[in-house]
Design a protein that fits this description.
Blueprint (H helix, E strand, L loop, with lengths): L2 E4 L9 E4 L4 H20 L10 H25 L19 H8 L1
Antiparallel strand pairs: 1-2
Helix pairs in contact: 1-2
């Protein structure tokens, strides 16, 4: 698998190795989530309690979500269930893009 190093303007504090050809829309969404989280942390001055820059706290929290999602998938595999996210309406696995549609409609 080919990988590339991603750094640059607009990716403050983000430096990572990612697969080449990664879906840029997902990368943009992730960046936007972290930026919004960073702004929220800053707006409520939550970085002051630990004297940690808000972008580092935002990266940490986003990482917690990623690790939690992995743990949920591992749990589902352990119990012999399908680890893919399911629709709250049908309890069947989401099709490509369906989870985003449901999340955006709430």
């Amino acid at each position: 698998m080919e990988v590339t190093q991603k750094t640059g303007p607009g990716l403050r504090g983000y430096s990572g190795i990612v697969p080449k050809g990664e879906d840029l829309a997902m990368d943009q969404m992730k960046k936007t989530f972290e930026e919004e989280l960073e702004s929220l942390i800053n707006r409520h001055s939550k970085e002051n309690e630990s004297n940690t820059p808000d972008f580092i706290l935002a990266q940490y929290i986003a990482g917690c979500f990623a690790v939690f999602n992995t743990a949920v998938q591992q749990r589902e595999r352990w119990y012999g269930r399908d680890p893919r996210p399911t629709s709250p309406f049908t309890r069947s696995p989401f099709t490509s893009g369906e989870s985003d549609e449901v999340a955006n409609s709430e």
